[in-house]
Backbone:
């Protein structure tokens, strides 16, 4: 169960409603006599004796308002209960029944929602006669469709989740499925709706009584008090104020409960006022990038607003014409590193670096020239179906950069787009530019994406998991294409992948990341040959199943890494891998952070080399 | 060839999506099977119909034509109580460890539900729950926790424990390691291997990842566009693929194996 996060409106509203409920219980015992006693002074104005004056029969209005609390609350609660129970039942019945009944039921609920609840109530009241029971039933049934629709819609979305399917396969009977899996998972929105419905019901019931079809004399609720107060509105306005204030206050408080509950149940909520801390100074790494490197990243830090470092001092470079791979598991910071290079960090994250440059273009500075950014760095994203706007044709999307930043004419831009599509081996490119993204297959879209990245003639392509969403044969084509582009145009590529196989076959040089840091840098040939030095890289290689068997009859177990990576906020002072490392050195690895010297950040490897 | 009969088999399985004129056939008469105590790997690319086979076997997709047999008994056309009973004999573990567990139920309740789907009493079945948690190398204290307190790999192990708690005769694992990191995937694959040895589990393992399938399977069946392309013992298929499609598939896998340097 998610814990409810208490917030001020919720606490205030709940305690306010609690007080009103207490009042409703206590008032009839305390002020019943006063409320019914006929004093001589009819329609008296507010005075010290009668704070809100008296009504036509000389009864104290304040006492009557207080005593009426009980009946009003009881009626509202009863009507809300009818609305919610009837609505939720209807909604669930619709969900559990067959396809035909469901379609029919949902349409029926739609029609019922369109019909104003108060009108429905009036009709029911006319049929059943006046009185509290009729109005409770009327308002209750009038409020039911809202619950029915919410229940049906939410149940439909939860019902498609895997755990419901699993429960069905295990033989859980339908009513248990409903009670155990569906209702608990839609209880949050239903609770919110419940408190809002209570406020609406209160107003509607008061309205019926006010109109004279609700509570009948000698009984009285806030609505009927308001009715009698209206008659003397000009002589004693105080008489109307009592019930009005009571209805308004209770309604507003109930609304606040709904609001507060919505906030309290939203797991994405929480305090947004995170403290902004100045990040600690960045230390440039000891590993100097060669002067002719195209992309230089030195001491890159990507931090949350509260100062938690997601990427913690990453340094590497990409030479002209080189394919560099960034490999690591989820949470290693590889994508954030790549996005910092492209200046496309998600909102709220900040990047700092001792040096972050593409040739002479400063990527870390506050004002990098957007034109140079757009034309010198091409980006290929993971999901080709999400990276194109489905409403626009391919041609317009492919030529956008050219036309905006390179001021190419329409005809010229289209010609270049067709050329680029041809380069990425898309058949019939002249037709593709006139098509919409959904008309292309996943592999085609990813090639088009690469074509779009290529179009402005970038010096660097940043490809973030470009083949993860693709089938293996399509992946092979796309990887070949990337190698081809690198070969023919000399475009540098920064390739991000979790797949050490992909990285090893495409790249020249590989940067291995773990827990926001670079742990090792090695040539792809060394990686392929298993000449990794850092214990993490070795473990990662050993954990990956191979395509070729090892000639032993018995199947071997894969190597695993005990434990899991530390959360960004809990990274230790020393090596982040120390806890899981088979060769960790006592007293050193856990406390002292290893430098990336000699292309590997590991105390154990350094010690092995040095003593000689 | 091994002559022992199939524990679970599909014969000429045909499945269509949609109704009437818009119906589209996604499985065109596929026949394959798995022997008791063995693992059958189903590989193929997206749209090959490998997940559809799993869903048809457990009854999520209706079968258009053909038979699904468990111990030689035809499962198609079963209804009501018989169907419920048969469903429990074959359990499915699905891909997404974040969607397969009810966020509002403790792990203990989820596994207790697998033991007794009607009452799902975590306290009554506490001993059984703990035994299954230990089977998948999780602490007994996990029973009182909620799914969000676990990582993806742990959740996937819980999903396996829950499927096993039903005490099924066959487990169908549909892409169960695809959403996991390499090191976590290794953990889950090792668990399956250990279970295969200790419980002599019969399993259908579905994956798009050829290396993973080779690692866990005894036999492998290759699917393309809803048709069976090739089937045989893992060693034979991976060493000497007969069908050109299988050869292409194997050649596409980025790997560091020697064959590349030799070629």
Residues:
């Amino acid at each position: 169960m998610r814990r409810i996060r208490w917030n001020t409106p919720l606490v205030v509203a709940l305690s306010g409603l609690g007080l009103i409920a207490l009042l409703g219980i206590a008032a009839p015992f305390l002020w019943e006599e006063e409320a019914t006693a006929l004093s001589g002074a009819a329609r008296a104005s507010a005075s010290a004796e009668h704070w809100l004056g008296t009504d036509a029969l000389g009864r104290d209005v304040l006492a009557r308002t207080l005593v009426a609390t009980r009946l009003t609350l009881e009626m509202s609660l009863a009507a809300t209960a009818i609305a919610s129970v009837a609505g939720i039942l209807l909604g669930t019945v619709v969900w559990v029944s067959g396809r035909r009944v469901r379609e029919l039921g949902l349409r029926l609920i739609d029609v019922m929602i369109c019909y104003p609840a108060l009108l429905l109530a009036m009709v029911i009241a006319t049929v059943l006669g006046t009185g509290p029971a009729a109005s409770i039933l009327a308002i209750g049934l009038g409020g039911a469709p809202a619950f029915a629709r919410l229940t049906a819609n939410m149940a439909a979305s939860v019902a498609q989740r895997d755990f419901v399917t699993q429960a069905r396969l295990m033989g859980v009977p339908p009513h248990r499925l409903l009670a155990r899996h569906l209702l608990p998972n839609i209880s949050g929105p239903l609770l919110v709706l419940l408190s809002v419905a209570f406020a609406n019901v209160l107003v509607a019931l008061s309205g019926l009584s006010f109109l004279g079809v609700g509570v009948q004399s000698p009984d009285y609720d806030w609505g009927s008090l308001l009715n009698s107060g209206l008659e003397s509105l000009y002589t004693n306005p105080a008489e109307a104020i009592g019930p009005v204030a009571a209805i308004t206050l209770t309604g507003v408080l109930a609304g606040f409960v709904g609001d507060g509950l919505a906030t309290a149940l939203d797991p994405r909520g929480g305090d947004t006022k995170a403290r902004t801390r100045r990040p600690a100074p960045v230390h440039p790494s000891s590993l100097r990038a060669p002067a002719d490197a195209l992309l230089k990243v030195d001491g890159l830090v990507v931090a949350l607003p509260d100062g938690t470092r997601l990427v913690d001092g990453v340094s590497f470079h990409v030479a002209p014409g080189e394919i560099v791979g960034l490999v690591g598991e989820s949470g290693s910071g590889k994508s954030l590193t790549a996005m910092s290079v492209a200046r496309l960090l998600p909102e709220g994250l900040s990047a700092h670096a001792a040096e972050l440059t593409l040739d002479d273009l400063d990527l870390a500075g506050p004002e990098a020239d957007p034109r140079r950014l757009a034309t010198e760095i091409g980006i290929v994203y993971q999901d080709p179906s999400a990276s194109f706007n489905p409403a626009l044709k391919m041609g317009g999307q492919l030529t956008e950069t050219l036309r905006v930043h390179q001021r190419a004419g329409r005809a010229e831009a289209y010609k270049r787009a067709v050329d680029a599509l041809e380069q990425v081996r898309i058949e019939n490119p002249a037709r593709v530019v006139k098509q919409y993204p959904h008309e292309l297959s996943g592999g085609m879209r990813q090639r088009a994406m690469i074509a779009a990245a290529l179009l402005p003639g970038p010096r660097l392509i940043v490809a973030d998991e470009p083949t993860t969403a693709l089938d293996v044969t399509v992946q092979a084509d796309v990887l070949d294409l990337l190698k081809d582009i690198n070969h023919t145009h000399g475009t540098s590529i920064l390739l991000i992948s979790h797949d050490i196989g992909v990285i090893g076959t495409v790249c020249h040089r590989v940067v291995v990341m773990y827990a926001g840091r670079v742990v090792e840098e090695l040539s792809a040939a060394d990686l392929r040959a298993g000449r990794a030095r850092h214990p993490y890289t070795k473990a990662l290689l050993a954990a990956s199943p191979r395509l070729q068997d090892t000639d032993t009859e018995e199947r071997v177990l894969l190597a695993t890494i005990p434990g899991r990576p530390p959360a960004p906020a809990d990274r230790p002072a020393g090596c982040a891998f120390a806890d899981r490392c088979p060769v960790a050195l006592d007293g050193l690895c856990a406390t002292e952070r290893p430098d990336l010297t000699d292309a590997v950040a590991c105390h154990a490897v350094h010690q092995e080399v040095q003593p000689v | 060839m091994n002559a022992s009969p199939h524990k679970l088999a599909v014969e000429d399985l045909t499945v269509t999506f949609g109704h009437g004129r818009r119906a589209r056939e996604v499985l065109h008469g596929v026949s394959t099977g798995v022997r008791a105590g063995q693992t059958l790997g189903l590989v193929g690319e997206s749209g090959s119909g490998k997940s559809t086979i799993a869903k048809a076997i457990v009854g999520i997709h209706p079968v258009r034509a053909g038979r699904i047999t468990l111990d030689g008994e035809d499962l198609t056309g079963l209804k009501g109580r018989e169907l419920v009973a048969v469903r429990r004999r074959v359990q499915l573990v699905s891909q997404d460890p974040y969607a397969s567990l009810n966020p509002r139920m403790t792990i203990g309740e989820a596994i207790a539900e697998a033991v007794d789907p009607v009452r799902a009493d975590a306290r009554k079945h506490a001993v059984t729950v703990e035994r299954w948690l230990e089977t998948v190398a999780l602490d007994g204290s996990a029973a009182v926790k909620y799914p969000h307190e676990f990582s993806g790999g742990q959740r996937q192990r819980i999903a396996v424990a829950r499927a096993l708690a039903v005490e099924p005769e066959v487990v169908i694992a549909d892409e169960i390691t695809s959403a996991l990191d390499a090191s976590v995937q290794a953990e889950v694959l090792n668990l399956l291997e250990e279970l295969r040895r200790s419980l002599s589990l019969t399993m259908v393992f579905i994956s798009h990842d050829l290396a993973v399938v080779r690692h866990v399977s005894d036999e492998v069946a290759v699917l393309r566009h809803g048709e069976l392309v090739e089937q045989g013992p893992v060693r034979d298929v991976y060493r000497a693929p007969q069908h050109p499609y299988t050869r292409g598939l194997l050649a596409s896998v980025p790997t560091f194996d020697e064959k590349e340097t030799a070629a």
